[in-house]
Amino acid sequence: MSTMTKAKSGKKSGSSTKKKWVYFFGTGKAEGDAKMKNLLGGKGANLAEMTNLGIPVPAGFTITTEACAEFYELGKNWPANLEEQIDQNLAKLEKAMGAQLGDKDNPLLVSVRSGAAVSMPGMMDTVLNLGLTSDVVQGLIIKTENERFAWDSYRRFIQMFGNVVMGVPHEDFEHALDAKKKQVGAKQDTDLNPNDLKEIVRQYKKLYQEKTGEEFPNDPKSQLSKAINAVFNSWNNPRANKYRELNNIRGLLGTAVNVQAMVFGNMGDTSGTGVCFTRDPSTGENKFYGEFLINAQGEDVVAGIRTPEPLDRLKSKMPDVYKSLCKFRDKLEKHYRDMQDIEFTIQEGKLYMLQTRNGKRTAHAAVRIAVEMVKEKMIDQKTAILRVQPSQLDQLLHPTFDPKEKKEKIAKGLPASPGAATGKAVFTAEDAEEWHKRGEKVILVRIETSPEDIGGMHVAEGILTARGGMTSHAAVVARGMGKCCVAGCSDLSINYSTKQFKAGSAVVKEGDYISLDGSLGEVYLGKVATQEAALSGNFGKLMKWADGVRDMNVRTNADTPHDSQVARKFGAEGIGLCRTEHMFFEGDRIVAMREMILASDLDGRKAALAKLLPIQRQDFEGIFEAMDGLSVTIRLLDPPLHEFVPHEEASQAEMAKAMKISAEAIKQKVAALHEFNPMLGHRGCRLGITYPEIYDMQTRAIIEAACNMKKRGVRVYPEIMIPLIGTVNELKFLKTSMLQVIQTVLEEKKMKIDYKIGTMIEIPRAAIVADTIAEVAEFFSFGTNDLTQMTFGFSRDDAGNFLKDYYDKGILEDDPFQTVDQEGVGTLIKWAVERGRQVRKDLKIGICGEHGGDPKTINFCYRVGMNYVSCSPYRVPIARLAAAQASVLKKQAKK
Hints:
This protein has 895 residues and is of the alpha/beta class. It has 33 helices and 34 strands. Strands 15-25-24-17-18-19-20-16 form an 8-stranded mixed β-sheet. It has an 8-stranded parallel β-barrel with strand order 27-28-29-30-31-32-33-34, surrounded by 6 helices. A 6-stranded antiparallel β-sheet has the order 2-1-3-8-6-7, sandwiched between helices. The two termini are 48 Å apart.
């Protein structure tokens, strides 16, 4: 590439001098294959694989992700030998296609596309029709005898290059195009004639010069070098960074760059372009599914600029092409053994495949596809278990609209992503994020979404667009996020300036409630009631397979009989954390609790606790009944007492009146309870040591409830958990007192109960001396919220103010309060597990923070040998699947 700016190449280094940066594919052979995704990106690896399979793929070459990483390492300069290797592979491409870049008599045009190892649809940049110049366009007219096609391709190239490479706003070009269409009375882009398009090219070039201060480049090789740099740079654009953040994509080198010979879907009525899925990505149905546009290029489909036709219609319009497409559909799905997302172009009746990748799908589709592929003997049950992301299951566990509820339908579009959503209408992504920060639930309403809307789409309950099809940006991203989406709703007339839309006679303004049914593609006025999700069929089958391979139990965190019942319905195998303090806040219970706090002597405290005893006992009875036959771990009182008293003067006055004491007395007691750092203060076992009568009452309530329920035929297995233990002597003191209470109750009831007494490991010191604590404790449960807080020295209530800087600057990869820090906190956990079991071989060990529902943490818990994880009820299926995957992966690693 002799005309390329030499400054683009970086200094030669030993690591890059002889490195292969570029891989060729074409004429039935490729230098890469599908296993090279980390190096060639998903798109490049699959283009190579399709080439090797004998599928018609336009020739091209892939610049590696390593070249992108080196580009950034060298201060946005090219590594040594990259320019030379691009020149060599461009020559191969020209030979394969029998055409030359920049040759006006026989021009080669190329596309320049991104492609990371993990699919990031629409987040990085693409340039089509590269190689067109004022001379080449004339040659293209003569070669193709299609003047309209040539000028249409040129105007598309100027717009795409101007926007992607030089940052000229896309809307500026669209305004010029719309103005011309209005002037000549054209409804669609395809209604413009060659002279119209020629004039648009002139206007686009003028606009380009006004915005960039330079003329549009007339040298194809300069165009290519700039486009390659633009794709490299798009790796770190805001939307790509946001997408990786939202999808927890880390550790990638960068994006590959795919330079590929253009094939043209905009050459007339025998040409077209489309996107298809080998199965329905919304429902998972084994049905060929997709969309296409006649006389268009690929960006027209995915950008949602025109609403495409369903794939079925291609069968009647181009039967031979459709037949070939069906053949490639079957071949690719069987080869990859997964649902494929395919891009294709038809040039004058000839079909070309431009991309295949494992298709993004909803949770519902993921489960159905995995189960049905097992039935079809395409994959086995263990592979099916690995095919569904545990976090995706969240989409299946929440309510849908109640079919009995009256709904006022105001519009219908395409069912782009299933589910139900209700929220206030907002019209920009920025407003969606702002309203979300205020605690508002919103529906993002757009004419069409773009990658820049990613932040607003993430926080919205659902997405509604007036344009675009089932494979538009809005649809693909919404499905990936598990967001409800109705797309291509042409009934809508959206006005951004007034922040409202009309649908028939209905007018919806910003802040008005609307509801979306993404499964039906319907829009309703106002709020619509929902109902619980059904968890049977394919979901039930997949979870049964998962339960069959996992060897770590999943419990739930539940404080009420209702939560216990919900969790059991989701497959919980016991309770790993029942927080007794939550019971004290309901109704009149708080009054008795406050009486205990205000009491000046032991008798006063005991009198108040006597009122709480029957209430606690009744709560435990309900939970034991819901968990018949399963273990229930009950944590004794943990938070500091100041949490149970009001801190505002008005509330203190109200409390004083209710308790018939002076407001001043309340004020003094609240002041006495104040601590500078309450999370490290008088709480947990420290309260039980100062006020043993509190833990005695709770222990009595637990054992009495167990005896009462056992009499009724309920199988009870209480596990009493003492929080915040730091030394074995704290545990010994409290256990001795509790055993006396338990023995007294069992003698009174003349019964035997199978119970255990254990502790939470949440203080680093407890983890370090776990062997001595295991001499007394019959089980450990890791309280990872506090353990993380104390190990890092972070306040979990305040860390959110600065942790974002840690992620942005690469200091931390994950939020340590959501995913266990395996290097630091994890080392303490592993140490405690090993030391504890040295002393007590049958020591039962689990985790009970919200970390217990995080798939990465669950994998870690399995590897260190925990018996169970415990999480909130709605995360139980997620934990079941993640535990099964951990088991499958460990067994695969041993082979």
